[in-house]
Amino acid sequence: MRVENVTAAAESFTCNAYLALGDRNVLVDAGAMDGVADVVADHTDTLDAVVLTHQHGDHVERLDEVVEAFDPAVYAYAEHDLRTDALADGDEMKIGDEAFEAVYTPGHADDHLAFVSGTTLFSGDVVVHDDGAFDGGSFGRTDMPGQSREALIESIERLLERTPRGVEHMYAGHGGTYHGDVLDVVETALERAEKREPKYPDE
Fold it and tell me: What is the CATH number of the domain that holds 125?
């Protein structure tokens, strides 16, 4: 499976949107970068599906652009005008060449899902490797209305339980990609979240 960050050249704030190419070409999040559909088209003529980790604006702003260009199925936990298929905790779906399990991971967002296979984790914003606050294991912010640090901690614990030891590729919603011991990154993020200190103390 080849994974391309199709928002890597963005000049304005967006999430990382990942195009997984293989037996089933799938875009994980659509991002907020104008022209993202053109970047997808640089890599493939067909897009089978878009999978949403959650529906914050930086993850879905250009969803309509992608749907108009490719007419893919759209999978999401929560309702959306463009959603074609609902996802729930424990559902399985093929992304690229691999079977992934959806793991319900609220806290940063009520509708948040992460997707894990035997080798790869698409973590959205529940866990990231580096984001300007921490390196080597960080977590989505929980200081905005509707967010919950306690729910996030429970979500990271759930993700740890469902992530196989052999996972060595992590594609997070923000920051860089990570290749190595993904469970160590998730465990570090959990330890930091459990301190319950502000992620961005100066804000």
Answer: 3.60.15.10
Give the model confidence (pLDDT) of 81-133 as tens digits.
999 999 999 999 999 999 999 999 999 999 999 999 999 999 999 999 999 89
Is residue 55 situated within a structural domain?
yes
Question: What is the number of domains present in the chain?
Answer: 1
| Run of H or E residues at 70 | helix 63-70
Q: What is the DSSP letter of 79?
A: -
Note whether 66 and 25 are within 8 A (CB).
no
Q: Report how far residue 3's alpha carbon sits from residue 43's, in angstroms, rounded to the nearest whole number.
A: 10
Q: Is 146 buried (19+), middle (13-18) or exposed (0-12) by CB count in 10 A? A: exposed
Q: Residue 76 — φ and ψ, nearest 5°?
A: -155, 155
Q: How far apart are CA 19 and CA 49, in angstroms?
A: 10
Residue 14, SS3 per DSSP: coil
SS3 of residue 202 by DSSP: coil
pLDDT in tens, 64-75: 999 999 999 999
Predicted TM-score (pTM) of this structure: 0.97
**How many residues belong to the chain?**
203
Say whether 117 sits in a helix, a strand or coil.
Answer: coil
